[in-house]
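Look over both lines before class:
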Amino acid sequence: MPGRTLYAGAAALCDKIAAQVPRIFDQAQNSLANHQKNLVALYKLQVEAALCTEEVRQGRGLRLVGEKIFEEAILQMLTRVLPLKKGVTPADRVVKFIGGYVKFVNEKALEQEDQEGNDEDDESTASRFTARLLQFFYKGFLAKDKNVRYRSLQSVAEMVNHLGLVDEEVYSELRSSLMDRVIDREVNVRVQVAIGLSKLSGTEGPSEEGEQTVQELLLDIMKHDASADVRRAAVLNIPIDDTTIDAILDRTRDVDITIRKLVYSAILEKNVTVGDNDQIMGPTHPRALTIAQRELIIRNGLGDREPSVRAAAASLLGRWVDVVGGQPEAEGEENPDVKVESGLIELLKMLDMAEQKYPVDAVLSVLTSRPEIFQNMIFGHEYWKNLTPETAFLARVFVEHGLTTNDNVRLEAVLPVVTELAFHIQDTFNELSSRVDEEQEARLLTDLTEDERIRYEDARLEKEAILGELLQLAVNLDYSDEIGRRKMFQLVRDMLSEDLLPQSLLNKCLDVLRELSPNERDLIRVVVELVQDLRDQARGNEGEEDLKVASPETSPGETPNTARPSRSNPPREQTAEEKARADATDYKCLLLCIGMLERVDGTLDENSTLAGILDELIIPSVKRKEYIFREKGLISMGLCCLIAKPLAINTAKFFVEQVPHSPASLQESLLQITFDIMMVHEAELRKYRPEIIPVLMEKLLGLVSMAASDKVRAVVCLGLSKLILAGMATDYELVLTNLIQVYLSPKTENNLELRQCLTFFFQVFCYSSPANQETIRSMFLRTYETLKEDREKLDEDEEMISPAQITTLFADWTDPNKLRTVVNAHDSTNSESQANMSIQLDLAIEVLRSLLEQNWAKEDKKVLCQLLPKLYLPDSADDDKVKELKVLVYALRSRRPIRDTMTNNAFTKFEAAVMKKFGKQLQDFNEEEYRKLEQLEKLFSFVDSIIPDDDDEEIGLDEPKRKGKKRRSDSIMTTTTEADDVTSAGSSKRGRSKPRSKRPRLSNSDDASDDEVTELHTPPPPTRKVPKRSAATRKPPQVVYVSSSADEDYAPTPRSEQSKKRSTNHVKNEEHEDVTFDSIIDGDEHDDENEEEEVHDLLAEE
């Protein structure tokens, strides 16, 4: 019968599959080389199994018996792989094999569909097999065993790219299952989830509104996952497009070095082009990126602290140069200039040339990593004749790189002579002047449109950029040729005297003049003459017969002194136009003075020509009301102070007093001037004006909190940090406290410059000397209280770091191991620079004293106790310090018992650490013996002065724990006589351990009756032992006060004069006793008997 025949065939097939499938998997786990052969063998077995079917429902349906047998055999093999942990190579090969088989079987199914013309929506053996595998692995996603979860997700990640056509339900289930595993606690599992989601994101369709997409989830993983492995997996596998490129570029600032390196090498460089075809732009091609993205890549890559990351960024830039370079010249075409620099020029056109730093870094990186480009560059005549901002910039950087590598031979072969370069500079300046004249003429004659104005401005800025690059190049030339030297000197001097020279080029011209001048004195004389000539020309006092002007043939070293024209005639009143011209000239002269003063190091006494400029130009500008003149005048005056000691001493206070009344931009300059004066002329200020330093420090500290802007506050903090490191601060603790307050204030949360400055400063200050660490240690508690007060004053929307973080900062700053590491790194043998390994032991003692002495809030006590276990305890310490630490720990346990569980746990941990570290030194701990030590006398005086927490306080603290219990006032026992309480308490103590020697307070009232009880924090009944007495014939005694030295001085209220006298006498006797009973360890037996006799006598009076 057909059914029986099929069933018999199925049994035979089952035996065949059971024999061959294990053999195939056994070979697959041993080597990757045989995978292709085994894929074919397994596919043939599956095809054979698919033919084995069984008719059901009288031939109206088929049961896929063979496929089911094949799938069960495969799943049985996979079941043995899933429990294996990560790193088992055979398991990894099997997973790779099953992923490859899914790809193989789906490709075969697609080919078969194309040949037979079947509908893609029809089910196939491949689709059913894939769905069955996915359903099997879904169960592993939720397994308790982390290895099963890992292997299941690893297998799915291998399969995702080759799933072929799957149902919408299967896809949705796969997507949701992977997204649910994102929060798995195992890093290896999350890595496979990231890989799977990355492959799935490329096939994701539009999502419903409000639903998180796979791509959004991947971007979140890439940015926020705590594991670098997970972030790395997401970065390497996520598809690169316009929506993900910014997030990928953000990983160039990842904390993990490997991720930063892989972004450049494995992502950006790999995707510059599509495949090996350089003509097809990839998503990271420089032309496909924006200017901001290109600059971000250059800035972060070449500015990275790790050499490997910088090397990867340099390799990427070299790749960019290759793909954007010009097309090779046609065969047989002659070109006098080798165009190896064309790629660099094209790359520079894609960057913002106004931002000089990043283009310079990019070109230097390419010239360093690709030396063949540097060796083959030739700057021919046509190159200098047709300069653009990019070509001029490249020539300048080329010269700088040649000087850095000392390749003078290469520079001499490429660069023109000085005279030729001077003519190029002159031609460029003439073109710039023509552009400016044309623009001014066009503005006067016609109303320019927006496009015309932009065109004129671009042309002017282009020539200005070329001129600036040529001037910077001229600084690095060899001026051994006297003719070229004179030509360049006269050219630069004439350019400085021209009104059309842009202000941005003044400093570059001064740099050339400094290079041409034989010394500073000659440079100052040239600039002073130029300033005087400009001012005279502007005011119409030009008298050529009275002036000696340097001729074109005059060398820089032979510049004659200028004779000032006589001004005996009173000046006439200037017109508005003349005044505006004079103001413009004065402003230019101030800029020249600032540039000159920034480039000289000599004193004012050595350059007497500066005195005239100071009196005639700088001081009058300071007195003017116009902001621009006052600003430049103050800056010029401040620079003069740096080279003139008397002027600095007399004006130091003046600059800081101008800060509150000046705009924010001028405040920065004034503060910088003040700090420079204090740093440069420290010795003179201490010698001649010692009283001014505290005044300056007070005013500067006031500006910390009153600064007009974040930038000003950052400048103040930076300056104060320098003064502290230089040893100029008058009150270290006050300055440091203010800096810490600003550092931790929520108002400076977004002031990254200030935060970065102070973060570096505190580390340098604390790890530079043990004295600085001691300063930080001594101010810990006071600073903590100050910050606590600041926290209480915060607004509702402001948030400050927690007290626990504050204590952690101080623990880090006072860590002696970090100071020792720095000292050892410098091989310092100076005893003063050696770390004090007991500094945090001193900090622990200080904290314990504070916990005993001050009434800290519960949260503060918790924070301070949690700090103690974090402190470093040295292996060996002074015996007196160890004993003091032990006594304070014991005192805190007995006098200030800790009731909070977390606080007590932290303190117990610290106590155990102390005993473990100093167990041998404390093994004979005995208070009585310690009291006899003279060096611990003050310590025990301090401990004895601490009033222990009384029972009232204890009851008050424990009241929340006794909710629901009956109060004493509601109990019948409350109405019993106090004598009965005392008697029962005394009798119940038999066989118990000795209690703490606290004296009870017994209340007494003349008006109290036996039926009325007034309870005001009633203490527990006294626990002193008293002799048993018969109470049959006694009236209930009235409650009285028993006074002792441990309690507060209460006046007893006895009912008889005799008891009053006895009580008073007893108090007086106790005051004259030498032995104090308020100690860590209870008093002796004799003291207890005296106290019991006192209670007995008081009760007997009744």
